[in-house]
Write a structure and sequence with these properties.
The chain is α/β, with parallel strands linked by helices. Helices cover 43% and strands 11% of the residues. The protein has helices at residues 5-18, 59-69, 93-98, 114-123, 132-136, 177-194, 199-212, 214-227, 240-245, 254-261, 268-279, 295-307, 325-340, and strands at 37-39, 52-58, 73-79, 104-107, 129-131, 231-234, 249-250, 285-289, 311-314. The strands form two sheets. Strands 1-3-2-4-5 form a five-stranded mixed β-sheet, sandwiched between helices. Strands 7-6-8-9 form a four-stranded parallel β-sheet, with helices on both faces. Strand 8 (285-289), helix 12 (295-307) and strand 9 form a beta-alpha-beta unit. Residues 19-35, 37-43 and 142-168 have low confidence and may be disordered.
């Protein structure tokens, strides 16, 4: 689907707001995944004071914080690689050092990155912590805390289906539009409190951020108004917060969903139920996490393709070719709109 001229212009502005990113390894041990990316977003003007030192646990939030902080924030993202699974990450001693001297810490929360909360408590006890799940009001509970069945690209977990989150809560709150706005507001407020001399600068950055979020907001509204009530099924729940915000009906078979949430192989009956649903054209689209590997999700995708059910690929973490949070999200939303046959 072709982006409108206005959408293209605003997404280009998002790229300018978010770049340049200078990513570098920060002393991970040889047996640790790539981590410790450091980024500083370009500002529309020089910072009037010393930058605030910020640590973000994952790049989903690190990108946003960098946009909001601009030249007045030195943002270090611990996991800045899409090949790293935050659920199972085992931090190295060098990761703890990243938190030393941090004035602000931004984590996802909801048992998604507990290692970051622990490192913040130990290495930056005086720094305020922005917890995205807590701010969003989502009750992530203890669901999805166990992911032995997940085979995330670049990892070697048994099985291939268990990267889901059961219960009423879902910690993938960067896919919850209201949470993105709430976190952005909280980050701006904390940065301004930590550096009052740069408060007007941070306000300007927040306004610029809201402007470049327009394609994201408008695409969500377009799909919601034209596709509400259409159905989907998902191999994992990573996109479910966004699907709910769009008004889509989740028809993922319950037996499969619960097995996935518990990190276990679905029963033959559970898998057969999913394959039958697709074979009958019982959903409008299949949401497929392209960072997941394993025979079961691949079999589900093949069944959807054979039945003519559109497959929309999404990712849990920011892919390496994404220029910003906005371009990543809007690209996926445009693919979904196309699959649903609605203009966005």
């Amino acid at each position: 689907m072709t982006l409108s001229t206005e959408k293209t212009r605003l997404l280009a502005a998002a790229v300018m707001l978010a770049t340049p990113f200078v990513l570098s390894a920060c002393g991970s041990s040889d047996d640790q995944p790539e981590s410790g990316g450091t980024s500083s977003a370009a500002a529309d003007g020089e910072c009037p004071t010393s930058p605030v030192d910020v640590v973000a646990s994952v790049d989903q939030w690190g990108d946003i914080v960098s946009q909001l902080g601009g030249a007045c924030a030195n943002v270090t993202t611990v996991l800045a690689s899409s090949s790293v699974d935050p659920h199972h990450y085992e931090p190295a001693p060098s990761d703890a050092a990243l938190f030393d001297g941090a004035q602000l810490v931004v984590i996802n929360g909801g048992h998604y990155d507990e290692w970051a909360a622990k490192l913040a408590t130990a290495s930056a006890p005086e720094a305020p912590v922005i917890d995205a799940v807590e701010i969003s009001g989502v009750d992530a509970g203890h669901a999805g805390h166990d992911h032995e069945g997940h085979d995330h690209e670049g990892h070697d977990h048994e099985g291939g289906e268990g990267h889901d989150h059961g219960g009423d809560g879902d910690p993938h709150v960067w896919y919850l539009p209201s949470a993105v706005n709430q976190v952005a507001e909280a980050v701006t407020a904390e940065l301004s409190a930590l550096s009052p001399d740069a408060a007007s600068y941070f306000d300007q950055r927040h306004t610029a951020f809201e402007n470049v979020m327009q394609p994201y907001d408008e695409t969500i509204e377009a799909i919601k108004s034209r596709a509400a009530g259409k159905s989907f099924a998902a191999t994992e729940s990573v996109f479910n917060n966004m699907a709910a915000a769009l008004g889509l009906e989740d028809r993922t078979p319950e037996e499969y969903r619960l097995a996935s949430a518990n990190g276990t192989e679905p029963t033959p009956a559970g898998l057969d139920g999913f394959l039958w649903l697709l074979g009958e054209g019982g959903v409008d689209v299949l949401i497929y996490n392209t960072q997941t590997e394993g025979s079961v999700p691949q079999k589900i995708r093949a069944a959807a393709e054979e039945a003519g059910v559109p497959v929309v690929g999404v990712t849990e973490t920011v892919p390496p070719n994404a220029q910003s949070f906005q371009t990543w999200q809007v690209g996926q939303l445009d693919s979904l709109a196309e699959a649903l046959g609605v203009p966005a």
